[in-house]
Amino acid sequence: MKLRTVAILSPGDMGHAVGRVLSDSGLDIITCLKDRSEHTRQLAQKAGIGDVPNLTDLVTKADLVLSILVPSHALAVARQVAKAIRTTRTNAVYADCNAVSPQTAGTMEKLISSAGGRFIDGSIIGGPPKPNASPRFYVSGQHADEMSDLDGRGIMIRDLGNKVGRASGIKMCYAALTKGTSALQYALLTVAERLGLTDELHEELMFSQAGVYRHMETHLPTIPSKALRWVGEMEEISSTFENSGLSPHFHKGAAEMYDLISQTALTGELDGNHPTLRNTISTVADTVSPEN
């Protein structure tokens, strides 16, 4: 499919960066900023993304709608877009690119299809596009090939076939490792702090797990500003595990850990202005309820 106009809901940290590289490649990028935050409006303006007044205009004008949101908002936005598709009687292509379970993707596919639209199950692995760093957009479903024109425009498209649930599933497995591991690291370091064993654990990790610990030192302090957004993602992974016959409790615990981190003052830290790992863990440990 030859694309001319792509809509992005919503142009946040990832969405606006995707919009920028797609715009640079010659596509017309639009969004609907109704009820969006001032921060999101500024990001959209920075990326040169045009604003349309409502979703009915958006689904009429766009050849493709990319949903790039926090997982907890994905289903609600799919319902709103489905309503707009039904109202306008368009057959808009809607790609959900969020970190949701295959079951949630299946629910959204029914919403969009029953409204007359075409649904693509999608997911994103990798950070916002940068020079020499393109995120991978995994896609699946019978309309997945309609994303192919975006390949090489600052992002990479990986088609996983015509079954809805495959693209969302690979994200669940990948993030179960990456973000799940970070949650576990936060938890064990917080326990060590509360047991008064931080120095001793630091010494042992530097002796036997130096590479892992160095990564923890640089990576974990950057997480608090994103922790609240990751709670819903861990819940979706938990659901995916449970529906695959495995324990959901690994990532229920990860969701609880990110929820705890989101309650600290660390969430206001800007990129490049993070405290040390030890100060980060000390702050998280102080947030744990005294009765725990």
What does this structure look like?
- The protein is α/β, with parallel strands linked by helices and 292 residues long.
- The protein folds into two domains: 5-164, Rossmann fold, CATH 3.40.50.720; 172-287, N-(1-d-carboxylethyl)-l-norvaline Dehydrogenase, domain 2 (Orthogonal Bundle).
- 53% of the residues lie in helices and 12% in strands.
- Strands 3-2-1-4-5-6-7-8 form an eight-stranded mixed beta sheet, with helices on both faces.
- Strand 2 (28-31), helix 2 and strand 3 (50-51) form a beta-alpha-beta unit.
- The radius of gyration is 20 Å and the shape is elongated.
Based on the model shown, name its key terms:
alpha/beta; 8-stranded mixed sheet; 11 helices; N-(1-d-carboxylethyl)-l-norvaline Dehydrogenase, domain 2; 2 domains; 12% strand; elongated; 53% helix; 292 residues; Rossmann fold
How would the blueprint of this fold be written?
Layout lengths: L4 E5 L3 H12 L3 E4 L6 H10 L2 E2 L3 H7 L2 E4 L3 H18 L4 E4 L5 H13 L3 E8 L10 E5 L15 E4 L6 H29 L3 H11 L1 H10 L4 H20 L5 H14 L14 H11 L5
Parallel strand pairs: 1-2, 1-4, 2-3, 4-5, 5-6, 7-8
Antiparallel strand pairs: 6-7
Summary?
The chain has helices at residues 13-24, 38-47, 55-61, 71-88, 102-114, 166-194, 198-208, 210-219, 224-243, 249-262, 277-287, and strands at 5-9, 28-31, 50-51, 64-67, 93-96, 118-125, 136-140, 156-159.
